[in-house]
C-alpha cells in the first residue's frame, strides 16, 4: 500500500522557517521523482517544487525560488521541503506528491504564517 505522510507544518511568524518532511512507504522511493504542492485558502492546488530520482536536480515555482529547498534521503524514503523567509502568502496546506503514471498524494500538512 502506497503511503505518503507529511509532517512539520505549524504556525510560524513572517520571516521564519519550517522544514516539512514526507515519509513514504509501499513503493521503491528511489525510482520516483518527488514533488511538493500547496493549496492556499480558497485557491486551487499549485506546484511548488520537484526533485529528480537522483536528487541531483531540483525545480521550483518562481514564487519560492531562493526561499525554499527540496531535498531527499533515499535511504530514509523521505523527501523534505525547507522553507525560509516565510510570508503570509505561503499559508497553505502542503502536499507531498509522487510523480509517474500512477501519481500518489499525501494527506497534507498545514502551514500558517502569521504574526
Shape: globular
Q: Radius of gyration from the CA trace? A: 13 Å
Poorly predicted runs: none
Question: Major β-sheet, in short?
Answer: 7 strands, mixed
Beta percentage is over 45%
Distance between the termini: 40 Å
Count the strands? Answer: 11
Order of helices and strands: EEEEEEEEEEE
The mean pLDDT is 96
What is the structural class? mainly beta
Q: What is the overall number of helices?
A: 0
**How helical, in percent, are the residues?**
under 10%
Give structural notes.
The protein is an all-beta fold and 115 residues long. The protein has strands at 3-7, 10-12, 18-25, 34-39, 45-51, 58-60, 68-73, 78-83, 92-98, 104-105, 109-113. The strands form two sheets. Strands 2, 4, 5, 6, 9, 10 and 11 form a seven-stranded mixed sheet that branches. Strands 1-3-8-7 form a four-stranded antiparallel sheet, with no helix packed on it. The termini are far apart.
Top keywords for this entry?
50% strand; single chain; globular; mainly beta; four-stranded antiparallel sheet; 115 residues; 11 strands; 0% helix; seven-stranded mixed sheet
Write the layout of secondary structure elements.
Layout: E1 3-7, E2 10-12, E3 18-25, E4 34-39, E5 45-51, E6 58-60, E7 68-73, E8 78-83, E9 92-98, E10 104-105, E11 109-113
Parallel strand pairs: 2-11
Antiparallel strand pairs: 1-3, 3-8, 4-5, 4-9, 5-6, 7-8, 9-10, 9-11
Quick structural overview:
The protein has strands at residues 3-7, 10-12, 18-25, 34-39, 45-51, 58-60, 68-73, 78-83, 92-98, 104-105, 109-113. The protein is mainly β and 115 residues long. Strand 9 (92-98) and strand 10 (104-105) form a beta hairpin.
Amino acid at each position: 500500500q502506497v503511503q505518503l505522510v507529511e509532517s512539520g507544518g505549524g504556525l510560524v511568524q513572517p520571516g521564519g522557517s519550517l522544514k516539512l518532511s514526507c515519509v513514504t512507504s509501499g513503493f521503491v522511493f528511489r525510482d520516483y521523482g518527488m514533488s511538493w504542492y500547496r493549496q492556499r485558502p480558497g485557491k486551487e492546488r499549485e506546484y511548488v517544487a520537484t526533485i529528480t530520482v537522483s536528487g541531483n536536480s531540483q525545480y521550483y515555482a518562481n514564487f519560492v525560488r531562493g526561499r525554499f529547498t527540496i531535498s531527499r534521503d533515499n535511504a530514509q524514503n523521505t523527501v523534505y521541503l525547507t522553507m525560509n523567509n516565510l510570508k503570509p502568502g505561503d499559508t497553505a496546506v502542503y502536499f507531498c506528491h509522487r510523480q509517474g503514471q500512477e501519481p500518489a498524494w499525501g494527506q497534507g500538512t498545514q502551514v500558517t504564517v502569521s504574526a
